[in-house]
Amino acid sequence: MTNPAQAVHLLLERKETLAVAESLTGGLLAATIVEVAGASAVFRGGLVAYATDLKATLVGVPEPLLEKQGPIDPDVALSLAEGARRTCRADWGIGTTGVAGPDSQDGKPVGLVYVAVTGPLGRQVDELNLDGGRASIRAGAVSHALESLVMLLRSPSANTSA
């Protein structure tokens, strides 16, 4: 598991900033980042868009995408990450969306999560199928988001996957 301090340290080294747009993690990702001393030098802010309509109005996810794909979708995760970057004027953005349970949502199973990271070295979106209860699923999404960010920050060149 990636220590959030690794992400903060790498951002400090690179003199770059981070913002997040969270759905299923509901602020847990931002809270995890700001627990690190010195995070204020790199963390611009976070948006919690738990309700689907706020993904469009607060973060800028295109309404047609939400209408067609629903809120739990890899393209929505990417749009959340890009919206965080744009809204908070950050170098890097992370977006999280998925189903933490206890019930499925819009035909999507509990534990289905999409985590996206976008920035100057590329972008990445991952589909996760996590086990456990709400707390475990949310914590797993946060951990994966930080691992993905650290991987991209350590990448010598652009890394794009979808």
Automatic annotation (TrEMBL):
Domain CinA C-terminal stretches: 6-150
Top-level taxon of origin: Bacteria
InterPro entries: CinA-like_C, CinA_C
Protein name: Competence damage-inducible protein A
Source species: Asanoa iriomotensis
